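Entry for the shared binder. Reason: the reviewer on the internal report wants the predicted structure included alongside the sequence.
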Amino acid sequence: MEKTSVSSVKCDRFLDVRGIECPVPVVRAREETARMPAGAVLKVLSDERDSMKNFQAWAHSAKNVRLIAQGFEFSEKGAHFIHYLRKIA
């Protein structure tokens, strides 16, 4: 994973998968990145606690995606995990 601060990442697309259980968040992110041009960044919001390791594992095995940042956000809907993925090919 690239060393990037979550607060400094600019995204091109947004995917909210809160309330959806594994493996669907990763599947939806894979589908979304397939429609993106190379270099574009996808921001994914998830409330599944295993999403951190699931997105890390997917990005490690994927040939066309890099995980550039992960972290937490807090909103009126509560705490959730945030993942930034860059399409590289």
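Summary line for the report: The first strand starts at residue 13 and ends at 16.
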